[in-house]
Write a structure and sequence with these properties.
By secondary structure, the chain is α/β, with parallel strands linked by helices. It folds into two domains: 148 residues, 3-Layer(aba) Sandwich (Alpha/beta knot), CATH 3.40.1280.10; 58 residues, Trp Operon Repressor, Chain A (Orthogonal Bundle). 34% of the residues lie in helices and 17% in strands. The protein is built from eight helices and nine strands. The strands form three sheets. Strands 2-1-6-5-7 form a five-stranded parallel β-sheet, with helices on both faces. It has a two-stranded antiparallel sheet with strand order 3-4. The termini are far apart. Homodimer.
Length: 239
Amino acid sequence: MRYTFITLFPQLIRPWLEESLIAKALQRGLLSAEVVDLRAFGLGRHRSVDDTPYGGGAGMVIRADVAVAAIESALPADEVILLSPAGRPFTQEVAEELSRKEHLVLLCGRYEGFDARVEAFVTRSLSIGDYVLMGGEVAALAVLEATARLVPGVIGDPMSHREDSFVRGLLDYPHYTRPPEFRGLKVPEVLLSGDHEAVARFRRKEALKRTLELRPELLLRARIGALEAGWLAEMDREG
């Protein structure tokens, strides 16, 4: 998997590529990454990349000619992705789809964003949430983290991501490790029992319970809702 980041602030991206599993995957050749400085495509002696908006208004807008020149320098690519609060939500499903691509170009905005004509040169726009950041770098790194971990060999246990939150429409079940008791808080007995079937039932129940309490809309989205929610309520009544 290859990633190309287009940004006005390359030093926001580069340190992220030098630590943890991402760095190891880059060293092993499982991933490759390039950081393109948008300023290199700026105009004139001062490498200008932005201008005032037509029609007036606050802030500056990144020029289409500058942005498209940077995009075209990174082609060919499977996807050119604009990170924008106006984009479609970035979900686990989208991460899984993108993880099967060979080359992603991630376009990071600043100021008031890009000239709207840039949208004609991207394959999709993605948002990581209903809020506004100072720029697209954090969102681009979120895409990197979510997709890279799905590339075979990047994480140690290839089965681990199959139990992640959202993979089956639910939040992940709670995890515990030593010590068995900490400040009066005990690990659930079933996890110490050695009964694998009982453990599996407990984890399924806890995943459902967490999802119902914290993100009930996920159950509706996954069309699990009434059937398993009723099953959970029955299990709760039985203790």
